[in-house]
Each structure stands twice: as C-alpha cells, then as structure tokens.
Design a protein that fits this description.
The radius of gyration is 18 Å and the shape is globular. The protein is 46% helix and 14% strand. Strand 4 and strand 5 form a beta hairpin. The chain has two domains: 215 residues, 3-Layer(aba) Sandwich (Malonyl-Coenzyme A Acyl Carrier Protein, domain 2); 60 residues, Alpha-Beta Plaits, CATH 3.30.70. The protein starts with a strand and ends with a helix. The protein has 13 helices and nine strands. By secondary structure, the protein is α/β, with parallel strands linked by helices. The protein has a five-stranded parallel beta sheet, with helices on both faces. Strands 4-5-3-6 form a four-stranded antiparallel beta sheet. Helix 1 runs antiparallel to helix 4, helix 4 packs antiparallel against helix 6 and helix 6 packs antiparallel against helix 9.
Length: 293
C-alpha cells in the first residue's frame, strides 16, 4: 500500500453507471433525494441519461456515488491521507475530511444543482494550447469568456455565453489546438454564475463547518486549507471561481502524497494527473479496488 494516498473526487461530468453497495446512512441519503422527485437509483439502473445529465440531478447523483465509492475503498483497507475535489467534487472531499456531514453536504449540493441549472451558457475544453494562447482567445471575446478550469499545462476550460464559447472553439482550431464542448448546462466557474452563487451563499453561511481532520486541498485556492471558516469562505465563492486543479495537484505533491485514486465513475482526473507532469502516481477507482496498488 502506498505511504501517502490522496482521494480525488470528480466533478459533475462523471456520471455513475451503476448503484454500488450502500451503507444504511447512504441509503437514507438517496431516499432523501428521491423524496424530492429525483429517482436517481432507478434512472441509473435504466440508463436514463436524459434525466441524469440534467444539472440538478447530476450533482447529487455524482456526490452520492463518490461517497459510496469512498466507503468501498475504506472497506478494502484503503484510507486517505489527504483529499481534494474538482469543482462539485469538493463537497465529497469535505465530507471525507470531516468538515461537513454527509447530510449537510447533500443539502447544499442539491440546492447548488438547482441554482446552477438556471443560468444559460456553456463551457469548452481547449486542448494542446498553452496558457498564453488561451488567455488571448479569452481576451478576443471582449470580456465575455473566462478560463474556468486550469486542468493542466495544455488543458484549459473556458466558460461563457454560448456564442462566445463557439467563437473560442473556432479560434482554438485556428491556433492549432482542439476544442471539446462540455456537456453542462451553463457557464460554470465564471462571473455569469453570480446569481447561483448568491442564492447558495446564505445556506453555506448557516451550515456547520468543522476543521479538517486530514489535509484538504482546495481547488479554489490551490492550497491546503486547515481553517473551517476559510474553507467556508472559499466554498461560498466556488461557483464563480476558477478550478485551480494544477495548483491543487502541486500542493498534494508538496504534502508528500505518493499515489492518488479517483473516487468516481470515470478516469478524467486520473488522465489529467498523468498528463500534468506530477510525481504522484494516479489510479482509477477500479484499478485500486480490484487490482490493488
């Protein structure tokens, strides 16, 4: 087993394709969501992507799946020495770090999804381009486009109105890069999300936050955050703030993390980590659970 293992929790795009074994607590959390009209387990079993990809459904679905996978890893003797989460994944990371209770985090995630679903716009990943080129592409959008995710040295996500995103895709191709439109409903991690952020802020303010019981690396600041109120302030600005994933991985490396497992249904964070030039070894959930590390 590695000397220092980090749990990395993914964002909205990594939808579950099955329902894992659930503890009684997690089963009750699924029931809480289902009582609000979101039959997540049934939709996953039936592969109902039309419902599952909706932002207000995808966010609690991914959050709950991450908690279930974390439980599975722990049952197999895999414990985290540090945690971090990409965008939505921060909520599961905060539960793993003891900052939020699972029930409190689910309440925030459910409200967050509904608020974020109501803001029009889009996002695109720009690949094979450096930061300077992506910055110039955003500047050409006359302030209507921002860098939302710093995912790696040649992988950035831009966010804004749909026409500005389409223009960025065209400019990326002209610069020798490639663009991939993300399957999200709005311009996440941009100033355009201010109404959603403002709507969530009062609920974050009234939620109990505790100091992390293990190192928590914020993808808003890109640093280790040990103070409960600092974590609260960062989470309150998360919806409009860029995801500084490159910095977060660097901070995990500085902590002495040797290996990291993606606690989610896919391998997006695993692949990002392998391309980041980090000294950390990155593993998918399936690799760690079934093959061992």
């Amino acid at each position: 087993m590695p000397d220092a293992f980090a749990f990395l929790f993914p964002g909205q795009g990594q939808l579950p394709s099955d329902v894992p074994t659930l503890s009684p607590e997690l089963a009750r959390l699924y029931e809480t969501v289902e009582a609000q009209g979101m039959d997540i387990r049934d939709w996953i079993i039936r592969g109902d992507l039309a419902r599952l990809t909706a932002t207000e459904v995808a966010q609690p679905a991914v959050f709950l799946d991450s908690l279930a996978r974390r439980d599975a890893l722990r049952r197999h003797g895999v414990e985290a020495h540090a945690v971090s989460g990409h965008s939505l994944g921060e909520y599961a990371a905060l539960v793993a770090a003891g900052v939020l209770s699972a029930a409190s985090a689910l309440a925030l995630v459910t409200r967050r999804g509904r608020l974020m679903a109501g803001v029009p716009g889009g996002m695109a990943a720009l690949l094979k381009l450096d930061l300077g080129t992506v910055t110039r592409i955003c500047a050409a959008g006359a302030g209507s486009l921002v860098i939302a995710n710093y995912n790696g040295p040649a992988q950035f996500v831009v966010s804004g109105p749909l026409d500005a995103v389409a223009d960025a895709e065209r400019r990326a191709a002209e610069c020798g890069g490639r663009a991939v439109r993300l399957a999200v409903s709005g311009p996440f991690h941009s100033p355009f999300m201010r109404p959603a952020e403002d709507g969530l802020a009062p609920f974050i303010a009234e939620t109990l936050f505790a100091a992390p019981t293990l190192p928590f690396v914020s993808s808003v600041s890109g640093r280790v955050e040990a103070d409960a109120e600092a974590v609260r302030r960062l989470l309150a600005t998360q919806i409009t703030s860029a995801v500084r994933w490159t910095d977060a991985l660097r901070a995990l490396g500085d902590l002495g993390v040797t290996d990291a497992v993606e606690v989610g249904a896919g391998s997006v964070l695993t692949q990002l980590g392998k391309r980041a030039g980090s000294r950390i070894r990155f593993h998918s959930f399936e690799e760690v659970l079934h093959a061992g590390v």
